[in-house]
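Note to self: keep these together.
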Amino acid sequence: MHRLKSAAAAALLMAAAAPASALTVIDFEGVGASEGVGDIAGTFAEDGFTLDFDRMFLGQGSSSTPTYEVERQGGTTGTLTLTRGGDPFLFSSVDRRIEVSTIPADITLEGYSGAALLGADTFTSASPDDATFEAVALAGVAIDRLVIRPDRTAGLLGAFDAVVLDASVGAPSSDIPAPAAGGLLAAALGGLALLRRRRRARG
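Structure:
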């Protein structure tokens, strides 16, 4: 019985220690602080992710406390690629706005594992105010590369910011994967219930 009690307690502790989601917001503030406003290309690091800019433009919003945002250079098909050293992650959401509300613009996000395209989300922004678009086709899909392709309809700007990513799927093997937490908790509760039944039978 002592072994069963110890196993149940250990399972409860392990379930409690299972990692929750680890959301990271890529807001380009680190890149902006070092590079400033203007055309941007090359590779930069932010919050554990690698950002590879190809023919993009780093701008600032028009609010009283402007933050950095990204758009593609005019007349190009620029992209931003995000990776995490080969480790998997999830795409959660992105903020997007345009400059003229009468001319909407799209943004496409493609999720890859190696060379395989696992899914893509395309969102249409029709407002100069920031709008948050949450993953649909990419929801819950573990990827190791996210390619962002923003549109510039009729030469007008369409900026994006606050790319929210979840890195919890890349937990080290010594950690307990989040999906296993429910099974561990069920096993622990089952063990405790068995202990109670044995005690009642003896009483």
